[in-house]
Design brief:
The protein is an alpha+beta fold and 123 residues long. Helix content is 28%, strand content 11%. It contains four helices and two strands; from the N terminus they run αββααα. It has a two-stranded antiparallel ribbon. The protein is extended and about 65 Å long.
Length: 123
């Protein structure tokens, strides 16, 4: 359960070990700060209160994606399509912080929508 929560939030486990002379299992992991909001509540819920997370800032790490990237060359347009609707991780973090601070976020709710068909047979 703990590993699933860490993995879902984009984290990675550094080490896990049993503390000698006790029933404590220690897991050290790195998760992005942007993903740490609500982490303690979720991990306690998933483990029925058995896990006690302790969040400590470790270091800064640069995200390897450009938040303002749009496909421009012909190869990129063929590979990603015109809409390139998969938001980058950096863009998602920027939008989450802007929403949390009450700032405007430039995003469309429905883009390239089509009418939905029903598969029910007509009698």
């Amino acid at each position: 359960q703990v590993y699933a929560v860490i993995g879902r939030r984009g984290g990675r486990v550094i080490c896990d070990e049993m503390v000698e002379g006790s029933e404590v299992f220690l897991i050290k992991a790195l998760i992005p700060v942007a993903e740490s909001f609500g982490f303690a509540k979720e991990i306690r819920t998933r483990t029925s209160g058995l896990a006690n997370p302790q969040l400590i800032f470790s270091h800064w790490e640069i995200i390897q994606s450009d938040p303002f990237w749009v496909p421009s060359t012909e190869e990129e347009l063929l590979h990603y399509g015109e809409k390139a609707d998969s938001d980058s991780l950096a863009r998602r973090y920027i939008n989450d912080v802007r929403r949390r601070k009450g700032l405007s976020v430039e995003e469309k709710l429905v883009e390239h929508a089509e009418k939905q068909r029903t598969l029910k047979k007509n009698k």
